[in-house]
Amino acid sequence: MQFRRLGNSGLKVSVLGLGTNAFGKRADQQTSTQIIYHAMDNGINFIDTANIYAQSESERIIGLALEGRRHEVVLATKAGLVRGPGPNERGSSRYHLQRELEDSLRRLKTDYVDLYQIHTFDPDTPLEETLRALDDMVRSGKVRYIGASNYAAWELMKALGISERLGLNRFVSTQISYSLADRTPEQELVPLCLDQGVGIIPYFPLAGGILTGKYNALDAAPEGSRAQTDPNFSRFLSEDRIALGTKVSQLAAEAGCSPSALSIAWLMQQPAVSTVIVGATRIEQVTENLRSLSVDLTAEHQQELSSISEPFRYGAPFALYRLP
User: Fold this and answer.
1) Which residue in 58, 59, 49, 318 sits closest to 205, CA to CA?
2) Other CB atoms within 10 A of residue 81 CB
3) What are 133-162's pLDDT values in tens digits?
4) 248 phi and psi, to 5 degrees?
5) How large is the angle between the packed helices 153-166 and 189-196, nearest 10 degrees?
6) Full DSSP string of 86-105
7) What distance in Å separates the CA atoms of residue 161 and residue 270, rounded to the nearest whole number?
8) Which residues are known to be catalytic?
9) What burial class does residue 317 get, using C-beta atoms within 10 Å of its C-beta: 0-12 exposed, 13-18 middle, 19+ buried?
10) For the chain, which has fewer Cβ within 10 Å, the N-terminal or C-terminal residue?
11) Residue 221: DSSP 8-state
């Protein structure tokens, strides 16, 4: 396994991380636990979850699985998206974040998280309040590092500026949708992260499975695919993305690897990327994702992948989660 610093921090994370939003939803507790152990046993030390994944079941399952092995992983979770109907059950206020952190710690069966991330920008809460609350969490020992997620470049830069001005702990990472099917971060966010020493954590690196080549038509969802098990996923399917998946599959065949391994390997080589989180609902998927570490991505393959994905540098992001 390869390890990289998370941004400019001293924290080392595996270049391949484990995403867990399917735990407790599309993968039951037993399967999820097996996936966690298989990932850890193969060198993956970065596990990412959130307080809202599967209505908090993801955190609960991870907490049970890590009993006795908590010290082996870099554990990341998030808060900030909607948790309930109340006016204080969302956002990045001190009130909401402190309550959510305590609840996450209880479910995760730990007294600290390594990376606490704000799930999305909160326009109703002053950044100073959010950043002071996060700084207090770090000083208390309940949080080691802090990160952002789904922040626009100007929002992230404003937060970094406030932290510097007030002498507060700053975001070391930002989690965003980034893949061959979504290169929009390259316009503003990637240059910002390179300049400011912020590590990028891509989510949806396989565009929800589109880059695996499993989708051949808009109305033909493969058995057991996310498009079949999650009705909301259909909004991500489009003819141009399906065509991209087909082209990636062709290049992967030439390179002697799977489309998913090729897509992840390409993403790992992009500037400022610290760790690529990939979800799994089966152990076999983790095994397949690990093959990305041994892909020999030639300059020719890189150029071809960049060429066929060039249109996806522009337009709307593949995914962006914001407060309603």
Assistant:
1) 318
2) 20
3) 999 999 999 999 999 999 999 999 999 999
4) -65, -40
5) 20
6) STTSSSS-HHHHHHHHHHHH
7) 25
8) 53
9) middle
10) C
11) P
